[in-house]
UniProtKB/TrEMBL annotation:
Gene3D superfamilies: Vaccinia Virus protein VP39. It comes from Neoroseomonas eburnea. This is Class I SAM-dependent methyltransferase. Coiled coil: none annotated. The lineage of its organism: Bacteria, Pseudomonadati, Pseudomonadota, Alphaproteobacteria, Acetobacterales. Keywords: Methyltransferase, Transferase.
Length: 228
């Protein structure tokens, strides 16, 4: 999707690059691509640095990104912003490192999303912590994933996700992004057509309904241009 929004060969940054799948895909498509993640990331950043030497940087969440102003033509953030406690600061940094005509592509779940993606459990991110409904849905999700079905295991997993995930409504996210960016496009319907197993569903739905449904099935998929 990023390739359809920016010219291959341009400078590309994957913000929250994790294990590096998107970074390596961008390099394969001809982008001059780099990745950045926080220093306390849970995955093996060393092996990623070996696979793509000189392409990965680490930073502290309270520090500036280690790049000069206007360094990148496109920035991606795939399933990242729901884990950022102070997104306004992160967005200000991303605006700084983008060129004036650059683009930010962000994909992340919102409060309206039906299934909590980290747990695979429906609606638990919208329920009171420790409630009976939450416990039942967590047990069901663990059963379907072949994990131990106990209240203790489910509660521990859910508590970890709640500590690391900050759910906000679609309207709140639009306000937050609007502090540093202007909306360029919404791509939920395209995501639905291209990614879900029943992709034909997305092709027969009206564009507006496809976006509404995709937001609830998978979350937001938005592109943004920097404000002056």
């Amino acid at each position: 999707m990023a390739a359809s929004l920016a010219r291959p060969g341009g400078r590309f940054l994957d913000f929250g690059c994790g294990r590096g799948g998107l970074l390596e895909a961008a390099l394969a498509q001809g982008f001059d691509a780099f990745g950045v993640d926080v220093k306390n990331a849970e995955w093996d950043m060393f092996s990623l640095g070996v696979r793509v030497p000189g392409r990965v940087a680490l930073f502290s969440p309270d520090a500036s990104l280690p790049f000069a102003d206007g360094s990148f033509d496109v920035v991606t953030a795939n399933q990242v912003f729901e884990h950022v406690p102070e997104p306004e600061k992160a967005l200000a940094e991303l605006r700084r490192v983008l060129t004036p005509e650059g683009i930010l592509l962000a994909l992340f779940p919102v409060r309206e999303t039906w299934v909590e993606p980290h747990l695979g459990a429906p609606l638990v991110h919208r329920l009171p912590e420790g409630s009976k409904a939450e416990r039942r849905l967590l047990r069901l999700a663990r059963l379907l994933r072949g994990r131990p079905v106990t209240d203790a295991a489910a509660a521990e997993e859910c508590a970890h996700v709640r500590r690391a995930t900050f759910y906000r409504s679609e309207a709140e996210w639009r306000r937050i992004f609007g502090t540093a960016f202007r909306l360029h496009g919404r791509h939920e319907a395209a995501w639905l057509r291209d990614r879900l197993p029943g992709a034909s569903l997305g092709r027969i739905l009206p564009e507006g309904l496809g976006g509404w449904l995709s937001l609830r099935l998978a979350g937001a998929c938005w592109s943004w241009r920097p404000l002056p």
